[in-house]
Design goal:
Elements (H helix, E strand, L loop, with lengths): L2 H9 L4 E5 L2 E8 L2 E6 L5 E4 L2 H7 L1 E2 L2 E2 H4 L4 E5 L1
Antiparallel strand pairs: 1-2, 1-7, 2-3, 3-4, 5-6
């Protein structure tokens, strides 16, 4: 998946689950924006705007925008 495809799915309200570095994550649109979290972890990153999510969210100290081409096991709901 590339960055533009990820943005497209999130803009129309899809939830996305994926794997990165053998860990499972989810991105979910909410009433106030978007949240991203690692499965079975209570730490949630919340962002009001999609661009904030793309530019500021981190997974294992990597920015989402820099590793989006490395995610796999993608499920779109």
């Amino acid at each position: 998946m590339d960055l533009e495809e990820l943005k497209k799915y999130l803009e129309i309200g899809h939830d996305i689950e994926f794997n990165f570095n053998n860990e499972k994550y989810s991105i979910t649109p909410t009433e106030t924006g978007f949240c991203i979290t690692k499965f079975y972890n209570l730490d949630v990153q919340e962002y009001e705007h999609l661009d904030e999510l793309i530019n500021k969210a981190t997974l294992n100290n990597y920015k989402l925008k820099d590793i989006v081409d490395q995610i796999n096991g993608i499920f779109i709901y």
